[in-house]
Amino acid sequence: MSPQQKAESLGIKFEKAAPGYLNLCIRSGSQLLTSGHVSDLKGKLGADLSVEQGYAAAKNCAEKILRSVWDAHGTLDGLRVIKVLGCVNSTLEFNEQHLVINGASDLLHEIFGKTGDGFHARSALGFAQLPTGAAVEVEAIFEVK
Predict the structure, then answer these.
(1) CA dist., res. 97 & res. 76, Å (int)
(2) What residue segments make up the domains of the chain, in order of their start?
(3) Which pick of 5, 78, 117, 137 has the fewest CB atoms within 10 Å?
(4) Taking the complete model, does pTM exceed 0.85, yes or no?
């Protein structure tokens, strides 16, 4: 099953988006670079949100990224995930940002393969606050093969 088919089988819907204030995914050479995509879930990990809720929020961000990549490239096929940056709205004491961002990485592994085109570099960082009070923000870089 191709990455596009796999994403669709997981229920991810793709449709052209209206242009916004910023470019959500831009091509530079053979790379697709996404803007940060924030989760629908609001709140702070380590205070009012659990790791499981954060994981779901990171997955939500990855789904949005895939839609933006599809919108810019027309398909998820023929891509390799290069880098993921995950930002977690968290308390000073919270230290499981990596477990939260696994929500994004696991979805990308499921679609592109954990040992193949989905095997990516990643950073998972804690932040005092994110735009709109979002729980998670994720951005990614893809290579067009």
Answers:
(1) 27
(2) 3-7+25-144
(3) 5
(4) yes
